[in-house]
Amino acid sequence: MLTDEYIKRVYDQVVARDGDQPEFLQAVREVFETLQPVGRPVYWSASSSRSAPSSSAWPGLTTRARFR
User: What average pLDDT does the chain have?
Assistant: First the structure.
């Protein structure tokens, strides 16, 4: 059962586009049923796509890691 509203909307778009492909729709549904929303979103710094997530997205969390 699809419980997240966003996942339902995306699935409906897939059905509208590929409604004549029952095996494909079954596979998409099985994958979508395993997806769950992930708590709070993490916002990436607009100044650098290589920097770690902004710590303001997670109050109380300090991030020192950098992507190379």
Answer: 75
Residue 55 one-letter amino acid:
S
**pLDDT, average across residues 61-66:** 52
- Model pTM score: 0.54
C-alpha span between 38 and 19 (Å, rounded): 29
User: How many residues does this entry show for the chain?
Assistant: 68
Alpha carbon distance 31, 12 (integer Å): 14
| Tokens coding 1 | 């059962």
Query: Looking up tokens 């509208």, which residue turns up?
Result: 16
Q: Enter the DSSP assignment of 49.
A: T
Residue 47 pLDDT: 57
